Every structure is written in C-alpha cells, then in structure tokens.
Fold this sequence. Notes:
The protein is α/β, with parallel strands linked by helices. It has a single domain (3-213), classed as 3-Layer(aba) Sandwich (Rossmann fold), CATH 3.40.50. It is 46% helix and 19% strand. It starts with a strand and ends with a strand.
Amino acid sequence: MALAIFDLDDTLIDGDSASLWLRFLVAEGLAPADMLPREAAMMADYRAGRLDMECYMAFTLQPLRGRRVDEVGEWARRYIAAEVAGRVFPAALAALARYRADGWRRLVISATGEHLVAPIAAHLGVDEVLAIRLQQHEGRYTGATEGVLTYRHGKTERLAAWLAQAGESLAGSHGYSDSINDVPLLDAVASGFVVNPDPGLTALAVERGWTRLQWRR
C-alpha cells in the first residue's frame, strides 16, 4: 500500500503543538509562567536546526511529572478543542482526505510527545502515529522519555523500524514537512513536499526537486 507521511507542527497545523501546549498549561495554572521564555529560546534553536531535543523534552515535561496519564489525556482533549482545532490548514485536511480516498496508508510522524501527537492525529482522522514516547510508571508520567526520539535522524530510524514491523516500504511514498530538521525524512521518501518553507528549506527543495506548497488558514 502506498504511504503518505506527514510532519505535524507547522505542516498540518499552523503552529507548534508543544509550544501551544505549554502556553495552555500556563494559562490553566498547570505550569509556571517563567517556563515560557526559556521554551521560546529553545524553539529558536529548533528552527535553526540546532536544538538538543533531549534537553527540550526534559524541560517541557516537568509539568507532567507524577500526573496520571488519564488526567493529562483530559487536558489534551480540552487543549485540542481550544488551541488546535482552529489552526488546521484546510489544504492539509484536503490532502489527508485525498490520500484516504485513494487508498493510501497515512502516518503522522512528529518530534513532539505522543501525549499530544496521537490525539491531534486522531482529531485529523489519522490513526497511525510515530512520536516521542513518554515514560510511564503505575499509570503516571515520570517526566522522562524513552527510546529513540523522533527528531532529525531519529525520525528515519523509528520509521525504518515501523516499516519493518508493518511490512511496508518507502517505494512510491510521499512525505510532507515544513522543517529543515526533516531533511533526512524528505531524503528518504520517494517524493518530498515542503510546506511553507523558509529560505533555507526552499533552496534545498529547488536543489532536490521537492514540491513547494503554500498552505494558509
């Protein structure tokens, strides 16, 4: 079955779900406001392609430490309704619907935690997800991650394992992303599509023959 692979943040939705989540937690009194400036600085490093994702996750998962998984799931449901639903690119929904109608398998792969990516993907009608795994103990989050982080080359490593388990291949595959961090992923798929690319990614798209898309709300 043909495979369509989508990044999440700034690809399917207009914004970064992890940053929006932290702002939501602060607004709800579930995280301290002084986390926001440091997270913003880390995201600047992400956009420049130099973020230490392990440090980012350790920092941003602090509000979840010791919280019940089902409790955080309820926060996520409220968050998606309040902050994410209105940010979905209409063209992204159209693309997802087109691939589904044409019988393609659809996968969302993201360098954001699974506690956000899975419910957002489900909101978009996508069941299959690869995201950063969060460690749990006795039904509560520990504030740590586990396994290979789905970031930069970690995305292709996790994807290769998923392909082997699913009995799939990247033959004829399509991949969508907005980020310079996803160049390894875009190199791996048969056809790359860059969404609202910055100048650096635009230059690579021209060089490598990736299709450039401008998606707006």
